[in-house]
Amino acid sequence: TALVNDGENVLTPTPGYPLYTAIASKLQMMENPYYLNEANGWLPDIDDIKSKINNKTKAIILINPNNPTGSLYTTQNLQAIIDLALENDLVIFADEIYDKLLFDGKKHVSIASMNRDVSCVTFGGLSKNYMVPGFRIGWGIVSGRNEILSNYIEAINKILRARLSANHPEQYGIKISLEGDQSHLVEANAKLTKRRNMTVEMLNSIDGISCVKPEGAFYAFPRLQGIESDANFVAQLIKETGVVVVPGSGFGQVPGTKHFRVVFLPNEKILEKAYNSIGDFLQKYVKKYPKSVEV
To answer: For domain 184-288, which CATH number applies: 3.40.50.280, 3.30.110.30, 3.90.1150.10, 1.10.150.20?
Structure first.
């Protein structure tokens, strides 16, 4: 809100968290989505980002680890984005709220830590890493060159003074959470790794579904083949089986592709039952809707 004027745009990831595109619509910004490359582990497509930058582009949003795909960005990918941001005077909005939920020994690198000069706002919070979804408390850390960001920071502070009403008791929990015992993450990541592995194995065993292996967060974004509408597939799935997933069209996707998002937080018995139900239902669905064509 403090950065963008009418007619300007911010690069938003596709697929990505719908809140960002909703804010863009509220501010009457021009849409400027960039794609994550499914064939490359859902990493940001650097060539696509380059092609979308114009003289009205003010910022780029990164979600790392990503919602809805679970991808974790490489340092090479992040460096390429830093280079583009510096070259085109862009602010990077780095949503890193899942930065401690990682698998396979992977390490998260905060993009702001890689360059002192790049303009960056890094977002974090308690609700995901500390398993307290009701604690709607978070923060944004501004970094970069003060001579470039000073007016922007003042504009942010004016809005904060006028409108922000953060939960005071939860604010006291931030310091204790960040500096206290982190052993819960070992257990959490071990459980999530097991459930991630089950998710990828079971979904990839279903004819008509392929799933890129997530490396962080607790989401997967499997692709559907032979389906005309992921929204209709999801609606019918819920009605017939009670299994709740989210259609990929709600997050954005490459035209012509169909996906759905799963959350693999439930225990293994629930996940096994859900994935078996999805596989059985998909076979019935493609027979019921014979006009569906493979993409």
So the answer is: 3.90.1150.10
